[in-house]
Design brief:
The complex is a heterodimer of chains A (356) and B (383). With 356 residues, chain A is an alpha/beta fold. In chain A, strand 13 and strand 14 form a beta hairpin. Chain A is globular, with a radius of gyration of 21 Å. In chain A, 49% of the residues are buried. Chain B is 33% helix and 22% strand. In chain B, strand 4, helix 4 and strand 5 form a beta-alpha-beta unit. The N terminus of chain B is likely disordered. The chains are: A alpha/beta (356), B alpha/beta (383).
Chain lengths: 356, 383
Amino acid sequence: MPTRNSRSATSINEGNGLRGTGYGAMLQMKLRLALVDFSDGEAELCHRALGRLSGLSVDAIVHRDHAICDQIGARFELPERFYSLPQLLDSAMEAVDAVLIHGPRADRQQLVRQALEAGKHVLVQSPWATALRDAASLMALADQQRRQLMVGGVDRYRPSVQAMQQAARSGQLGMPVLLRMHDWRPPDRSQGSIWDRATDLLDTACWLFDAVPTDIAVLGQPQSTGAGEPPDFLQIHLGFPPQGMALLSVANGLPAGAGYRCVTLIGSSGAAYADDHDQMQLLLQGGAATARRAGEELATMTTQLREFQRAVHCGERPETKCEGCGLAIELTDTAMRAWSIGQPVRFERTGHGSRT
Amino acid sequence: MDRGPDSTARRFRSPLRVAALSVVKHDYVARGIQSHPAFQLTVVADDPGVPDWIHERNQEFADRMQIPYLRDIERALRDFQIDVAVVSSEAERHCELSIRASELGVHVVQDKPMSTRLSECERLVESIERNRVKFLLWNRNRLPALMQAEKWVQDGEIGEIRSAHVDFYFSKDAGPSLGSRRPGDPPIDWLEFQRAAHADGSDGAVGSIPIGEMRNEAIYPLAYIRQLTAARFERAYARSAVAFHQVNADNHVEDVGTISLEMSGGRLATVSIGRIGAASHPDLGEIKISLIGTQGALVIAEARPEIAVYYRGQPTKEFRRRRIAVENDFLLADNFARSIADDLPTILNEHAAYEIAATVEAALRSAASNQFEPVTSSSGNRL
């Protein structure tokens, strides 16, 4: 039976947040985390990121697979291991202040609700909601509980994309004209369907353009395994007012291994390029040289955790708050319609979109 | 020289005698052909009634190459027993000059774009076929990176190609930036501007008819895709804009665009293209080809292999990176020589060039209609 965490820590839930009390005070307050359904790789990344941050600790591990749970628990030297979130909340409710939710996409929404109802702050991996009304309902719950609900695992926390956005927002690039993005990956069911990836790209596109597209055209390819299969490749063509444009390509069909990402933002007076192709290091082991990407995953995880910590301590909405994700969900609804009819669709924001 | 539409077997002599028909734009096409020992640049020719500035450029090139310049195209082709015509005139005259050469049984190498009008392309295709001469639209498909990509694809390294994506950004400026025209100033005259740009070689769209980046440059990325996929373009959706250059705005032609394409066999493709300004890239521009296959993917930088050179006092406009091992000109000329000798299709023959021209027209129609447009002939029939 898991035991309650006995470590001493000043809980963030003991106060009403630390708005205006400064970074130093923030670091002195310990934000205790539970990792829910992290893979071993994700947990390792989180472990390394926490080594760079003060004021955050992992105090509970939750995983439906006992072996993985034990493995991750050993990594964090934690005896407190739980096999479901309700088990943690029932038996060690006070052990953690916040819950970081990964795991199967289909379960995330329910896990978010359980955590919020228990009064925990939540950082949930995208994709987490597929309908605006579900997202709105959980956001209202977070407000009611006075807890933060933040969406993680999105491109906005990648250092390369952040640097690009800063260049755009500072005016260095002039008015955004053309955005080109590729996001190609091997099949990964836990990451959701290809439309979920499209949602993240659409979110990033709007963020970089700082605008909402007006026109969407989509072409897709079915999986090569058989007719009637959902697409495993999409190319999404956007028109932004007054005359901006974007081409986004999403692939879920690469062979197992590394993926490929590329973002190019061309403005009226400059351009920014973030391409995996330009970030390759060479590994020579005999035979052909192997290219290995200079990773930004650790920095991405660190940035994301820091933003979550800031939002919780300062009582301010995080950069990727739930409302902001609603636009991307609506855009994805429209993109799916454009794909199904094979024609461009005019996008008009309603705030009532739903996607199943 | 074996002339006339009735000849079926052409004698191959070496070197083949080459006439440059108008050299108002790029002289690199003529020089590219000349780089191969199978060809001998013999004469420059043009029509007598062209403006003086064209005569001056033709004469200058002829003097440099130490060959004669004749103000009579047909006489030059006949009297100098020409086998091959290299056409690098204003874009709107491309097809007309090529057809006149073809009608005299002369093989044709032509600069891009194929034409400013699709109907002219159709006339040219008909003439080339009827006269059984060879046609090559100059292109970049023999750059080292493209050849490497082609080999990997042919070797099955990524399986069957499912989609192809090309970024093709030239970072050259094209005169004053957008918005620089003061109230009361006249719009920039296209031809005058292009003529003035000849000094730095950025007059690729010279002519009386303004042409945007899609008509002027999309031949390159579309030729890459066609070469690598061996598929035909069927439907296009495009967006375009004037975002960088006043001369484009004043003449109502785009300087940036994006194209989504459906191809035969269910393949897909995208092209993003633009003359994005010198400030936006330290070298020629970002040019990349990305392919997804059934068993993998490929990402290719068109510029590689290259070296970087930096030095004190380096002119700001000088590229820091220099392409190396480039034999595109020679290899295109070699391909053309072999196609003549062995009666084979050229690497970008009249049919491929026409399909690309029709695809560009479909993209331009789409940019105006905001709808997918089929790739069709000038009369609206699907290719």
